[in-house]
């Protein structure tokens, strides 16, 4: 899909702990992408605190929007529509973004478009790859989601596989806490794994060869069990080696299932998106596997993998041109995916879009050698 023109859309993302605002022309021309991170506010708690996240969005959203407009070199009056994440996500955080989008739309007499956060992640690929054209299989991996989606065209999605328990991002955070790393755990594990040896622990590859669903809770338990066994036998293991072994097990499963899904559906392309798509080993191994299988890989640059307003603006531009604006009575929907099943992810003609729907161990076998907190 190439596009030299199209609606000028301001996108707002507040589904979790990133206050993101971006400006996009059409679905592919990125004009600005400003993210106000809340890592400093949540790190001491070892995870996102919903009340703190919502309050921070409220405090930071206006300034973030002003900066995004300034970097894009446009005014709110020039914007054709305001797009906002309506779900899924944290209830309080979503409410702040939706209320702000409606207020901006009313103040400037602009239409508003409700966007599904997960579809936004898919559209992040278009900002880096304007030439991308379906059909494709998308691996969406983030703190709250791990799923494989097949689509013959943008806007109409079929769920192939989902996580049966923890999302990949959750598993990374839990193992990071177990190893004494900070929050968020994904980047910490990724950095430590680069210094470690992935063969140090023999960890399982959950549900390998068993369809397209995922299960990550057992892998975290396997790490705990391995460390306890090492402690009982008096053996020691470096944290970096544990991180490397865990990350390798996760990446093996994600890559194998994604390539298998592409082969099963007969698509020529793979999209990898979501916060975990910033993981260096996943990017490297997915690239290798796609090249070996003759698949074209589309994986956004890391700054577009994390939650951001630009991807919401891109998806919003698509929805706006295809279906028009939403009525102002739509509400934030934390569990937006609830009505979808494995046969079809579409909610009427809108696809994923909501427009049509209103620990520490007792004793440790770890050493800090080569690691960092």
Side by side, the strands of the main sheet go 3-2-1-4-5
Determine Rg (CA atoms, Å). 21 Å
Amount of helix = 40-55%
CATH level 1 name of the largest domain = Alpha Beta
Q: How many extended strands?
A: 12
Let me know the average pLDDT.
88
Largest sheet: 5 strands, mixed
Order of helices and strands: EEEHHEHEHEEEHHHEHEHEHHE
Identify the CATH architecture of the largest domain.
2-Layer Sandwich
Shape: globular
Q: What is the CATH superfamily of the largest domain? A: ATPase, nucleotide binding domain
- SS content category: alpha/beta
What's the short version?
Helices cover 41% and strands 18% of the residues. By secondary structure, the protein is an alpha/beta fold. The chain starts with 7 loop residues before the first strand and ends in a 6-residue tail after the last strand.
């Amino acid at each position: 899909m190439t596009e030299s023109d199209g609606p000028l859309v301001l996108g707002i993302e507040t589904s979790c702990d990133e206050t993101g605002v971006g400006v996009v022309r059409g679905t592919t021309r990125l004009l600005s992408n400003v993210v106000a991170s809340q890592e400093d506010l949540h790190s001491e708690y070892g995870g996102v605190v919903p009340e703190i996240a919502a309050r921070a969005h409220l405090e930071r959203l206006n300034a973030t929007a002003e900066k995004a407009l300034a970097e894009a070199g446009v005014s709110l009056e020039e914007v054709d529509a305001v797009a906002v994440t309506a779900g899924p996500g944290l209830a309080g955080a979503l409410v702040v973004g939706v209320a702000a989008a409606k207020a901006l739309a009313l103040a400037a007499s602009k239409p508003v478009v409700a966007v599904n956060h997960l579809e936004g992640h898919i559209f992040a690929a278009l900002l880096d790859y304007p030439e991308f054209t379906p059909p494709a299989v998308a691996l969406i991996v983030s703190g709250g989601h791990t799923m494989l989606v097949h689509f013959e065209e943008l806007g109409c999605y079929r769920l192939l596989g989902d996580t049966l328990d923890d999302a990949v991002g959750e598993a990374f955070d839990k193992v990071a806490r177990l190893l004494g790393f900070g929050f968020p755990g994904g980047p910490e594990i990724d950095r430590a794994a680069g210094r470690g040896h992935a063969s140090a622990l023999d960890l399982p590859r959950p549900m390998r060869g068993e369809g397209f669903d995922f299960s990550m809770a057992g892998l975290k338990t396997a790490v705990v069990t391995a460390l306890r066994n090492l402690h009982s036998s008096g053996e020691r293991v470096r944290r970096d080696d544990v991180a490397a072994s865990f990350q390798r097990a996760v990446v093996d499963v994600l890559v194998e299932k994604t390539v298998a899904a592409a082969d099963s559906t007969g698509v020529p392309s793979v999209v990898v998106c979501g916060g975990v798509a910033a993981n260096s080993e996943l990017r490297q191994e997915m690239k290798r596997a796609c090249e070996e299988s003759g698949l074209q890989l589309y994986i956004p640059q890391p700054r577009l993998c994390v939650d951001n307003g630009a991807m919401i603006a891109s998806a919003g531009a698509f929805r706006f041109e295809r279906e028009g604006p939403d009525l102002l009575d739509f509400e934030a929907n934390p569990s937006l995916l609830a009505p979808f099943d494995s046969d079809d992810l579409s909610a009427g003609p809108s696809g994923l879009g909501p427009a049509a729907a209103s620990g520490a161990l007792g004793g440790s076998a770890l050493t800090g050698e080569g690691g960092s907190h």
